[in-house]
Every structure is written in C-alpha cells, then in structure tokens.
Specification:
Length: 426
C-alpha cells in the first residue's frame, strides 16, 4: 500500500533553534509510522534568530525537502542595528519607555509594512512554485503551521486554486497574541490582520491549536472543526548527568521584558537573607536569551551573585541541564492574552523527574497540565507566601536528598501519541 503524501509548509526547520522548530520536526519524524509520507517546504535562505545544528541530525535522509528563496527584511534591518534587529526577530521587545528611536521605528515598520509578518513576501513565489508541484505529484493534503502566519496565507491561496484538504496549525494565536500590542499597529493594519485571520479560519478544512483556551477563542470565530494537539516530549536518551550539588533553580528559554516575576525575585531575596544555609546553596540558572529589564530587576533584588547566565545552548544540552537541575522554573507573562500559551519546554520539563515551579496568569492552560501530571506547582504573580513556602519546602527536601517529582499520566503527551492524533485528522 503506497503512502499518502502530505505537504507541510513551515518557516522554521533545522538548523533553526528554539521551540518553533520542534513541533513539526517531531511530527515529520513519526508520520511515516502511520503510512504518511511527509514532504516539507521551507525557505532556502532563511534568517533564523537562533541556530541549533544538532537538530539537523533528526531529519531523515529519506525526507523530501523543497526549498525556495526568500527575501528577509531582517537582513536589511541589520544595516541599521544588528542587535535591535536580532532582538525584535526573537520577540524580545523593550519596555515602551526604554525603547530607542531605532527600536520604535523597526516595530512600526514590522507591524504596518509587513502584514501579517516579515515573511509575507514569500507568499506569492511560494504559491506559484507549489501549484505546479502539487499538481505534478498528486498531493491532496496541505498543512501550514504558524507563526509566522504568512505560511497560512500560502495555504489560503492554494486552497482557493486547487481541490485539496488544508489543515492550518496554530502554534500560537494570531490577533490575540500579547506582542501585537507592542507592534504599534495602525487601525488599518489591525483590521487587515483580523481580515486575514478570519479568512484563514473560515477557509481551512481543519484548524489545529495547541491549547484549549485558543480552541475556545477560535470556536467563536469559525464553524470549521478546531482540534487541540498540544506540543509534547520525545524520548531523550541522556544518561551522562548527575544532579547539581547546588540548590539550582533553572529557567530554560527566553525571559522577555514582560516575563519578569518580581514576586519570585523578592521571595529568593528574602530566603537568602533569612537563611544562611539557603544563601550558601542557592543558584539561579538562566539558559537562553534574557532581556536587560529582567537582569536589572534581578540585580535590584540582590540576586546577581547567585545567577549563572548560561545563554543559548543546543537542544540536547538544554535537556541535560533540565535533568540535572534541582527545580525547573517556568515563567509566562502575567496577562489575559498569555493564558493560552503552553511553552514547548513544559513537556520536556514534565518528563525530567524534576519538580516544576511555574508562574503566570490566572486560569492558564499550563496550570491544568502541571496539576493533572502531578509535576509541580503553579503560582500567580501575587502569590508571595505560597511561593515562598513551596520553595523552602523543596529546599528542605533537597537537603535530605529526596527532592524529585512524582509524575503521572504522561504518555498522551509523547510525540508519537500526538502524531497519531494528527494522523486521525489527516
């Protein structure tokens, strides 16, 4: 029996680093087990903000990969300010009052001259190329994944011109995503975003989202079926690690300007002042990009000498750090718009056997997953006493040598189980 061909249109692909690449890299890895032949369409010359060469080893040599050139405006922006361009492309945006003239200008141009995003110029040439490829190869199913949501505009045009099944996968929401407010959108640009969003949601045959909150939001915008397929974990055979001797609290991933839990910094400051032993044992590991605002806040709370600023590391190394840390820290922006965000690293966290401390908005999807898997504790930004109590109780368990997580019900979040859910939709 021949395998069913499915065309997957994505911007992020190895050697891109960061969480955006993981979801479809893993789906593509396991789809052949369900008699699906994935064909991946990507840019030939992308401008990725993060590079992780180690992920390229996970791409099968038998996989068909199609590439077409893309014109990247961020490369032009580098002429004016390489640092600002790189930070904006990674989603690290300064607080409004601290933005330089260059940053304000870049945000305005990004928000209003490139709708829905900076890759919109790739839509027209991609549609032209793929129309012929789809016809010549008898492809009946196309999947687009965003952000960048320009990928969905490619799917939209293909759907209008061909008889095919189109699945639109949203790793994040569109117009309700938190950073939209920081892009200095004009009324016309915002309306254009909403028009594109509405057209995609009501033209695709199937919508896929990563959280129940986003499903509820989209259900109010379309009558098309909306299915939740979360991100997940893959088996990582890492055995060459030992638990940290320090009482390490480790955050893996970007700490954006607004992802700044001052309540946590205050709790840690107080515990250090109140307990000499805690002060001697404690270490805060920051693995990934950290905004200047967060570092300033940490310094103001007297924590600078306890910080181990690691920076970005390859995925395999980040998994190793997770497994050897005493506690894993997950931080989300405290706003209504972010309660739907489930960071991909959460699923690696829950299989690390290390307890999680998470902070974020009320009614977050993250809270529900941590609770149902029994992998840690979730706090609001106002939960000073409860947060302090749990961190100190973890410290006492660490001193006794019995600090660990007792996870349950993890199998449904394995990448292969999630790929089976995708197969059923396809």
């Amino acid at each position: 029996m021949s395998k069913k061909k499915v065309l997957i249109i994505t911007y992020y692909w190895p050697p891109a680093g960061g969480p955006g690449v993981q979801r479809w890299l893993k789906f593509v890895k396991y789809l052949p087990d369900f008699n699906i032949e994935p064909i991946v369409y990507i840019p030939e010359n992308p401008s990725y903000p993060l590079i992780d060469e180690s992920l390229s080893a996970e791409v099968s040599k038998d996989l068909t990969i199609l590439k077409q050139p893309i014109k990247e405006p961020y490369k032009l922006a580098n002429v004016f300010s390489r640092k600002t361009s790189k930070m904006v492309s990674r989603g690290i945006i300064s607080e409004k009052k601290k933005q330089s003239l260059i940053e304000r200008l870049m945000l305005y141009i990004r928000g209003n001259y490139f709708v829905p995003d900076a890759r919109v110029g790739w839509v027209k040439p991609s549609v032209k190329f793929l129309l012929n490829f789809i016809k010549e190869n008898n492809i009946e199913t196309v999947i687009t994944t965003g952000p960048p949501h320009s990928m969905h505009l490619i799917g939209l045009q293909l759907k209008k011109k061909l008889e095919l099944k189109w699945l639109a996968d949203f790793r994040d929401p569109w117009t309700s995503i938190g950073y939209h407010k920081q892009l200095k959108l004009t009324k016309t640009s915002l309306e254009k975003h909403k028009q594109f969003e509405n057209e995609v949601l009501n033209t695709a045959d199937q919508i896929i989202v990563t959280s129940n909150t986003t499903k509820t939001e989209f259900k109010n915008l379309t009558k098309k079926p909306v299915e939740v397929i979360t991100n997940g974990y893959d088996y990582e055979p890492i055995t060459d690690f030992t638990l940290d001797t320090k009482f390490t609290l480790s955050h893996i991933g970007s700490l954006l300007s607004r992802r700044n839990p001052k309540v946590l910094w205050q709790v840690l400051n107080d515990l250090i002042k109140e307990n000499e032993s805690f002060a001697k044992d404690f270490q805060l590991n920051l693995v990934g990009a950290v905004s200047d605002e967060v570092l300033v806040s940490i310094k103001r709370h007297g924590l600078s000498e306890y910080v181990n600023k690691v920076g970005y590391v390859a995925h395999k190394e980040s998994v190793k750090i997770q497994k050897q840390s005493q506690i894993l820290l997950l931080v989300e922006i405290d706003s209504q718009e972010t309660k739907c965000i489930i960071p991909g690293k959460l699923f690696e966290y829950i299989v690390s056997n290390r307890p999680i401390i998470a902070l974020g908005p009320k009614d977050s999807d993250v809270k529900q997953i941590i609770k149902e898997t029994n992998t840690g504790y979730y706090f609001l930004y106002s939960d000073y006493e409860a947060l302090k109590k749990i961190i100190f109780s973890h410290y006492e368990a660490y001193k006794k040598g019995n600090l660990q997580a007792y996870a349950i019900g993890l199998k449904k979040y394995s990448r292969k189980s999630l790929t089976e859910s995708l197969f059923k939709i396809i």
